[in-house]
Amino acid sequence: MLITKLSKSSTFRLALVYMALFSISVLLLLSFIYWSTAGYMVRQTEATIEAEISGLADRYDISGLTGLSKVISERLTRRSAKASLYLLADAQFNPIAGNLEKWPKGKPSDQGWVSFKIEGGDPLDSDERHEALARVFHLQGRFHLLVGRDVHDLEEIQKLIREALFWGLMMTIVLALAGGIMMSRTMMHKIEIINATCHRIMDGDLTQRIPRSGGDDDFDKLIETLNCMLEQIEVLMQGVRQVTNNIAHDLRTPLSRLRRRLDMLRQDRATDERNEELLEQTINEADGLLATFKALLRISEVESGSRRGGFENVDIGALLEDLIELYEPLSEEKGQTIVAERQQPQLIQGDRDLLFQVFSNVLDNAIKYTPYAGQIRLVVKDQPDLVQISVCDSGPGIPTDAHGKVFERFYRLEESRSSPGNGLGLSLVAAIVHLHYGRVELADCNPGLSLTITLPRVS
Predict the structure, then answer these.
(1) CATH second-level architecture of 219-303?
(2) Which residues, 6+ apart, have CB-to-CB distance to 34 below 8 Å?
(3) Cβ(348)–Cβ(314) under 8 Å?
(4) How are strands ordered across the β-sheet holding 337-341?
(5) Taking a C-beta distance cutoff of 8 angstroms, is the pair 307, 351 a contact?
């Protein structure tokens, strides 16, 4: 079961590729180490033989055959020369001096390097044969000189090095494989936790979150991002459910009235004047429903971000002046006064029509809920990177615990449900402000309500 899971794990396959690359790298490194050590030992042996050949040849030129034989005998008596091989032979390759009984069989008489087998130094093992490496040199008078070394110890050292390198490579492979399995199992365990959490969420439990390991590593950062995404999804789903409930609650009454009036018209028991009145009321109800769905579509369009392509520099001060000029007659009918406080011209990047819609909704609400002879203040504050526009009325205000809810679609306070409206005005305001990378906040004006919109300004 574990092998099947590992074979399907991309992490394990990646670990195998890494293990192969690492093993090849280790193999190349060990090969270089072997070539450097064993090759150096062979070259050192060859250099020693070359030096001895040169010295003995010089001795032959000075002392002749007798002097050369004496030097060979002296060298063979040294303890350090037990691995040395010497053989001085005549023209027929008959031994004259040295520690070899005869000239190696089947070896050419030409000068150069030769290798052959000799009997080992262990008398208990008569079958032991050692490898020897020697150099053949021809002396004047048709004499032949062979100088070499018993390279059995060298071969043993090379064998030991090869075994050490082989087991080092095997340990590297085993440790890399074990590390790959451990890493794959760890990753599989974390992925299984994520999969299990996702399945529980798919079953309908949107409150589930992926647990963190506490290591604050890259995986934990990914889990933190996923959890933030899940929280946003949960908020959106709750918003969808809330919108659905609000639509059912707010549209049920006008649809019922619309049906009742149509039913009365169908019965045709009213007078022409009564029919005209019913038709007018029905048309008004239908217009209200159409306005509601139009507002929903406009909010969806704004939230999609498609209007950012037409952003341009907008003078907030000039926009508010046009807005005040438009709404001043309405406020004067209620005896209200609109006071505007602004500094120098403030420019922001945005869609002028959408921004005009935002402040129209805000000012319309302020006029609607401000009592007769009340005051509405518009204050524009210029900061280094931001522009703050506050609209403060002297109306009844909104309870603090409802400040965050009034921006939800179709949310209306209980005392406002009997008045005209669909609960989408502030939702549209929040969507447009978010489109312009700004924020909207509510606060108490004591009395009344203060709505502040903060937008990034053009530097």
Answers:
(1) Orthogonal Bundle (1.10)
(2) 161, 162, 165
(3) yes
(4) 337-341, 375-382, 386-392, 449-456, 439-444
(5) yes
* C-alpha–C-alpha distance, residues 11 and 289, integer Å: 56
Q: Closest Cα to residue 7, out of 219, 171, 186, 180?
A: 180
Question: Which amino acid would we find at residue 283?
Answer: I
Nearest to 426 by CA among 398, 447, 445: 398
The residue extents of the domains of the chain are 1-83+149-205, 219-303, 306-456
For residue 163 the two structure tokens come to: 């075994």
One pLDDT digit (tens) per residue for the chain, 459 residues: 556 666 666 677 777 787 788 788 888 887 888 788 877 888 888 888 888 888 888 888 888 888 888 888 888 887 555 678 888 888 888 888 888 888 887 655 567 788 888 876 544 344 567 788 888 888 887 888 888 888 887 888 888 888 888 888 888 888 878 877 787 777 777 788 888 888 888 877 778 888 887 777 777 888 888 888 888 888 877 776 666 666 666 666 676 777 776 766 666 555 566 667 767 767 776 776 666 666 666 666 666 666 677 788 888 888 888 888 888 888 888 888 888 887 666 788 888 888 888 888 888 888 888 888 888 888 888 887 888 888 898 888 887 777 777 777 666 665 555 555 566 778 888 888 888 888 888 888 878 888 899 988 876
3-state secondary structure of 384: coil
0.85 surpassed by pTM: no
Of the candidates 130, 58, 48, the residue with the CA atom closest to the CA atom of residue 81: 48
439-444 and 449-456 strand pairing: antiparallel
- Return the CATH number of the domain spanning residue range 306-456: 3.30.565.10
Q: How far apart are CA 156 and CA 158, in angstroms?
A: 5
Closest C-alpha to 250, from 418, 402, 404, 406: 418
Return the closest-CA partner of residue 146 out of 104, 189, 178. Answer: 104
DSSP letter at 214 equals S
Q: Confirm whether 219-303 and 306-456 share one CATH topology.
A: no
Distance CA 318, CA 389 (A): 13
Spatial separation of the C-alpha atoms in residues 92 and 44, rounded to whole Å? 31
Residue 12 contacts residue 185 (beta carbons within 8 Å): no
410 within 8 A of 246, measured Cβ to Cβ: yes
Alpha-carbon distances of 337 from 333, 334, 393, rounded to whole Å: 10, 9, 10
